[in-house]
Structure formats: C-alpha cells, structure tokens
Design goal:
Structural class: mainly alpha
Strand content: under 5%
Order of helices and strands: HHHHHHHHH
Number of helices: 9
Oligomer: single chain
Helix content: 40-55%
Radius of gyration: 68 Å
Length: 207
C-alpha cells in the first residue's frame, strides 16, 4: 500500500485537492443560503417593528446618567432618621396648666337688721340747758334730732360716757351706729364742755 502511494503520489495529491475544493464549495453554498434566510427574517422583523420608537443605545464613550431616585430616597430616609433622633432627644412637652376654677359667687344674703329697742337708752340724764350738739364733727341735723329724742342734749353728758354707755347708745342710733367711736365724739365733747374752742380748733379744725 505504501509502495502504491509512493508510486502514484501525484494522483493522490490531485484527488485530495479536488476533495478540498468540493467541500469548500459545498460549505460556502450552505452558508450563503443561511445568510439569505437570516436577512429575510431580519427584514420581516424590521417591517413589523416599524411603528415602534427605536431608542439608540448609548455609546461606550458616553457615561449613563445616574438615576436620581435612589439618591432622593436615601436623602429622605436620612432626614427622617435625624428627625426621629431629635424627637427622642427632645424633652417631653410640658402640659399646659389647667385654668384655675372660677370662684363661686357667694349667694347674697340680705342682712336682717335688728330694729332698735323701744324707749330710751339707760344712760345718765342731762342736767342743765341743752347745748348745740351740731358743733361736734359728724353730727348733722338728723342725728342731732335723734340724740335729743333719746335724751342726749349736753356736751358734758357725752364727755362722761364709758364703754358700756357707748354700747348702750349704739343700739338706738339705727344707721348711725358706730359713729360715736369713729368720729371721736367723747374727745370733742370734752373740749366743747370746757369751752376750749382754741384746743378744739387746733385738733379738729374751725367750728
């Protein structure tokens, strides 16, 4: 077999070349048919997608813009965390003080005035001519008439009153009760009973 090949090597070489060319031709034809079929399918696809908007892909030299949504979300989360920390650190709000209750109005109780006793007070009677009791500061015409009616007519009579006499007289003075002590009747009557006009006027003013 080796001898046969060595004697006819040129024929074998020619046959090998023919086989290689034939195989290449068959392979090339098969590849062309497949390329035509792919191109036909691609054209059909382009026709179907003609109405669609084609967005060009970014080139390698262009840097795609970062999506702002994740950054915004991160900022919002960080702000919420800071606000929560401040709320935890802040002291609790002081409750507003309750308004003070309004004082209740006391019911108006009408004072029942005790009517003055009948008769005359139990005091020493006046001796001598009556004096003008209106010279005493605080004694007006009405009070002067009431005193005369009760038997009080002289300065020396008033000047001699003690605490018990004042309490006795106050029961009969009606609305003028308390004026004896408040207006210093007894001290005034002592000046007037001695006819000490200068001393009276120095202390109580001119008559």
């Amino acid at each position: 077999m080796i001898t046969l090949i060595s004697e006819n090597w040129l024929l074998f070489l020619i046959a090998l070349a023919i086989g290689v060319v034939t195989a290449f031709w068959i392979w090339a034809g098969t590849g062309r048919e497949a390329s035509d079929a792919e191109q036909f399918d691609a054209n059909d696809g382009l026709l179907e997608k003609a109405d669609e908007v084609v967005v060009p892909a970014p080139s390698e030299s262009e840097t795609p813009l970062a999506d702002p949504k994740p950054a915004a979300k991160a900022t919002a989360v960080a702000a919420a965390a800071v606000a929560a920390e401040k709320m935890e650190a802040a002291p609790p709000p002081t409750p507003a003080p309750k308004p003070a209750p309004r004082p209740r109005k006391k019911p108006v109780v009408e004072e029942t005035k005790t009517p003055p006793p009948t008769g005359k007070p139990k005091i020493a009677a006046a001796v001598g001519e009556p004096d003008n009791l209106r010279l005493i500061k605080g004694v007006g015409p009405k009070l002067n008439g009431l005193l005369n009616k009760l038997g009080v007519t002289r300065f020396d009579q008033i000047a001699a009153w003690k605490a018990e006499d004042i309490a006795e007289m106050d029961q009969y003075l009606e609305t003028f009760s308390g004026r004896i002590t408040r207006d210093l009747w007894i001290d005034q009557a002592k000046f007037l009973a001695k006819d000490d006009i200068d001393g009276f006027e120095k202390k109580y003013g001119k008559l």
